[in-house]
Structure of Thymidine kinase:
Amino acid sequence: MAKLYFRYGAMNSGKSTALLQAAYNYEERGQQVLLAKPGVDAKGDRDIVSRLGVTRPVHFLIGEDADVLELFFAERRALVEATGSPVACLLIDEAQFLTPWQVNDLLRIAVVQDVPVLAYGIRTDFRTEAFPGSARLLEVAHSLEELKTICRCGRKALFNARRIGDQYVFDGQQVAIDTLNDVGYESLCAACYLAESGGVLDGEAVTVSAPLGPDVDFS
Amino acid sequence: MAKLYFRYGAMNSGKSTALLQAAYNYEERGQQVLLAKPGVDAKGDRDIVSRLGVTRPVHFLIGEDADVLELFFAERRALVEATGSPVACLLIDEAQFLTPWQVNDLLRIAVVQDVPVLAYGIRTDFRTEAFPGSARLLEVAHSLEELKTICRCGRKALFNARRIGDQYVFDGQQVAIDTLNDVGYESLCAACYLAESGGVLDGEAVTVSAPLGPDVDFS
Amino acid sequence: MAKLYFRYGAMNSGKSTALLQAAYNYEERGQQVLLAKPGVDAKGDRDIVSRLGVTRPVHFLIGEDADVLELFFAERRALVEATGSPVACLLIDEAQFLTPWQVNDLLRIAVVQDVPVLAYGIRTDFRTEAFPGSARLLEVAHSLEELKTICRCGRKALFNARRIGDQYVFDGQQVAIDTLNDVGYESLCAACYLAESGGVLDGEAVTVSAPLGPDVDFS
Amino acid sequence: MAKLYFRYGAMNSGKSTALLQAAYNYEERGQQVLLAKPGVDAKGDRDIVSRLGVTRPVHFLIGEDADVLELFFAERRALVEATGSPVACLLIDEAQFLTPWQVNDLLRIAVVQDVPVLAYGIRTDFRTEAFPGSARLLEVAHSLEELKTICRCGRKALFNARRIGDQYVFDGQQVAIDTLNDVGYESLCAACYLAESGGVLDGEAVTVSAPLGPDVDFS
């Protein structure tokens, strides 16, 4: 029985490179793969774009209301007819933007269709809340595998802070594409994130109001 | 800087045993640990109970509205005064029952207080949805580590199916303690779960209505 | 196809507890397991002894020259005849003391007999060299999974230092059972180990003889 | 304290791509890295070559008798002088070809110099024996992380079989570069490897000579 893998990481951890390498590994052995990503992801249209310089189009986009099972069956049929060989793997980029029920279909593809599904995506947004697709993948994936990158301080990055111009912001819409409106993102470890947010996580401030003595300092 | 670990698993994967072993390892080296669990967990009152036969009381219960930082500071102070040595680790059993803001405090304890936090808990409920504490731990823990157990078919168990008497049920309240009302749970792999639920995941049925031909069969 | 797992850790990381928990999980589901350990392991005769207080005899000991495949077939036949149900898993304690060709048979049992093999053992000896069984398991196991414990300094322990009386020693025979001759072991992180050994690893001292300036200090 | 990571995988699992992505991630944040590889690796001279099409020269080669600590100090000094910023990471490609004492120095660089070392390499040779560098990395690395690729059968590849022309061979020298003499390699899972080798592992045949009945079949 095949499995659903969620390979998650902070922004700029090399998720698209890892996806393209996995696709390459399959195809080098003569095995077909299907590549897809959510339609809402605006970067590079139909392309999966690696910061290392490798680019490749997906087989299909997944619209917000799309039925992933139906899409998968149609695309698989087309690829099998074109190549004469079966589909060995389904690879999804930017999986954080899927809906929960689309992720349910990824699990069904793995378990019932016996096709491994590798879903790559960001774990949490700039407020440290999971995206809808990530939240569901964290619940149901057979295997949770982290792709790591580093914070400015050298530790492993955990969160994705948002900046508008030079200013970190901790309120706003979940999705604000980084090429627009002077919005930027920075992958930070938890310590650097809490230092910038003044201890706020997910809109919630530190709740201890009593004097705490020397053993706590959130400044 | 210390880390927050989420060691998750299906029911009966040995989470309490692993927690008690970790506590033992610290104490054997002369290092103090604090043990806690949510107050809502009815099993065994203040005890952490391992199915292997080992039992041990927690230092404190975490009520539904409790401020975890405040509790931690008070309990740490008491333990340091009683033993004369610092607290090397905070261990939480049944962490799935914490609230999201209580999990935020676990992250702050690790990152700002520099005390490692090991949180053990179940990933998802009988409908495959994360518990509130698990959902937040899956978002913010530095490290997600799976404790494994097996399905009746020999595969790794992923989900926790609920039975009332002999009947699997897929609707109802999230928490229904297993010693009451003839409710039982069974850890199942995704294939066995989908077989019992007729393809339903999280209350959502399979959405493909067109005839699919030989390549799909959810029966 | 089943897999061979090597669950390794420093001394006192809870390997026997984890093994006994895994056995319990199988048997609770009505699935039979076989337990074994090398005959050279003197502790507790035929027992697997957990520091948490749980103890249980193995089904068979593996002598130094024993053929593991032959033993496995005979013991499996006996257990199947006694219980009427198949063997779902083979669990090995103290696997570091197996010979490399005995580990080869563990791989064959997993791959050809389709029975999962969980081998628990120490990674390296007091000089930081792998034991014969560990060296082979590190080469061929499908999955390498670390069981963690802590150093006296709070970091993860990596190595097992040997003491005779109060003195750390870095030369001697690979196996010196800890209950005899005033020999003791302490799990240490790499920094604490190098501090005690004066930079020596595996009998080899630091090789840089030129003056190095402020950026190196092995004292 | 920094750590030594061993990221191992079968041939063609994307190790060089992963290394180049890690280097890119550091440099994108304005952090310097040092790249190195053993001198014995003939492919691409001083280049790290990714099958995805990305190529980049190393800062230094490590000769068979080279003192890695000395090389590291000299190269670090040069890079710091050239760039004015410290070295945040040392990345090693083809680490399987290092000597054990060179790996010891990698551990010292991580632990004593506090510079993370990411070593990428193949776990085992065509006979399923570890290379000298891999054997030592499997003993002393803080973290063992697998990079996966697939077998022709769709399972995870574990071993690297050698072919001369169309013929699988299981005897010969450990290193035979694949562009020469019609030598080729194929990453195989354990089942496919054992099928090709007739059950032989590491030069050792199956030792069970008694008639085994239906439950064993190595053909």
In short: The radius of gyration of chain C is 19 Å. DSSP finds five helices and eleven strands in chain C. Chain C has a mean pLDDT of 90.
